[in-house]
Amino acid sequence: xxxxxxxxxxxxxxKLPPGERVxxxxxxxxxxxxxxxxxxxxxxxxxxxxxxxxxxxxxxxGIPLVESLIGTFLVxxxxxxxxxxxxxxxxxxxxxxxxxxxxSRIVMRFGVALPMMINIPLVRIEKADLKTYHxxxxxxxxxxxxxxxxxxxxxxxxxxxxxxxxxxxxxxNIKNSExxxxxxVEALSSVHERQQDQQHNQLxxxxxxxxxxxxxxxxxxxxxx
Length: 225
What we know:
There is one protein chain. Among the domains are: 35-93; 112-204, no CATH class. Helix content is 50%, strand content 22%. It has helices at residues 30-36, 40-60, 65-96, 152-155, 177-224; strands spanning 22-26, 98-102, 105-110, 116-121, 125-128, 131-132, 138-144, 159-164, 167-174. Strands 5, 6, 7, 8 and 9 form a five-stranded antiparallel sheet that branches. Strands 1-2-3-4 form a four-stranded antiparallel sheet. Helix 1 packs across helix 3 (65-96) and helix 2 runs antiparallel to helix 3. The longest helix is centred in the last third of the chain and has 48 residues, at 177-224.
């Protein structure tokens, strides 16, 4: 039994604090993950070429047709088992992965044997990109500022492929990716606006204190004079 067997809200470690709300929640499409993350199409093509080469080489070597077919069948069997394993992993990863976007953070819960959870505060995200595919699925990688570092292998497969410096967490292989990207962009804009307002308020308060302190000093000097 893992620490994620019971979740008050699916994909989240506990109940949301006051003021935080879920904007979107979803999981990867397992067929898209099989094709693009585990590259089952490319590997299928490789196996097909291998099977054809095996059969042709045996026939060319003068091996009887029946024996050639038996030898080729073994390659087909091994190839099928390999593809089934990769497809199974894609299904398992999709089933155990939940992405959640709230008005203050992105939460990624993933992992088959060792489930883990990553919290990415929206204030730490500099930008979000979008890559869509013909079937409507897509990927949303995010760029994190220098204060937060993530390991590539620690995040895989929820990471932008071959992007090591900086590592970019990625909401991967999701349906309706454009809609999800718009939700994230709006949340990011709202958070950064609030952050700027807070900074301005803090700056105004600091200026007011300095002005008040200067005025007090001047009054003290006038009184002394």
